[in-house]
Amino acid sequence: MINDARADVAVLIGRFQPFHNGHAALLKAALASAPHVVVVLGSSFRSRSAKNPFTWEERAAMIDGSLAAEERTRVSYLAARDYYNDPRWAAEVRAGVKRMAPAAQKIALVAFFKDVSSYYLNNFPEWEPLSVKVEAEIDATRIRRVLFEAEDLDVSLSVIAPLVPTAVRQYLKAWTFLPYFAPLAEEHKAVEAYKASWRAAPYPPIFSTVDAVVKTAGYVLLIRRNDFPGKGLWAMPGGFVEPGERLLQAAMRELNEETELGVLMPTLADALIGVAVFDHPNRSQRGRTITHAHFFDLKTEHLPEIEGADDAALAKWVPIDQLLSMEEQFFEDHFHILDHFLQLTGDV
């Protein structure tokens, strides 16, 4: 706990998908503890999904709408990428808070330490923890489920009403009329059906997948996904490892099936220059999924022929210098996998 002296700045970190009364209690405590509050909006700069349906700007608007005019002047918003790399993510958050409050000497980290999912808060040992007891724990996942499984939106919004500030309820009602809502509801149902097919397993399954990053002549090979989740989003060719396959074999098979890349398999194998494992527990909304990304550099002066097939609606060679501007169009953590190999966002 912080001592009786007020902190210079209080930091509140979350995804706020959406902002609910539990978050509001934390923000109230933050406002009481410091003259300036920085709200860190996680999972920013990414495509919409059933798990992350709202942009960081929309979430900031929800929070602003729930505050009094004087309180709004004391709250700043820091949009933070996930990175799926804890040290890098924490360094970015620290740097962002420093930019917003350069003179702050004492920083309070306001949080509700609920379970193992709160582990990320331990990345800031230099900040004074202010643990807040929330009277009734509210689950944002449940709120999204009620919203996306609605048979009657008015009924669903009435169910949500006791869980969110009035301004947020009004915001959600208006948001459901936007063109994003229906596809996200469809994606939610597809993901829930996928999870239901594994529910009888004695333990939650851990899936093993592969992805292929193929570079040549200043371009990288991408596909546009044909199915939910992530229908219509850009991704790398990849998929599940089949029984009896080695990882490299699986990566090359998926690459061939989805893009029909005009390169002989021995040539492709010789072009492999790196493999990296991406295992963040929350990288996929379908469940715990660990992928091995294989990086191939063909080093050709021309672009081999390709054609989208199988799970890919389209295969396309995309200039590497355009990838950063496409960040919010990628499936799950695929932009960050590309960033790992191609250094798209630069070093911290």
TrEMBL record:
Pfam families: CTP_transf_like, NUDIX. GO terms for molecular function: hydrolase activity; nucleotidyltransferase activity. The keyword Nucleotidyltransferase applies. Keywords: Hydrolase, Nucleotidyltransferase, Transferase. SUPFAM superfamilies: Nucleotidylyl transferase, Nudix. Residues 197-341 form the Nudix hydrolase domain. This is NUDIX domain-containing protein. The lineage of its organism: Bacteria, Pseudomonadati, Pseudomonadota, Betaproteobacteria, Burkholderiales.
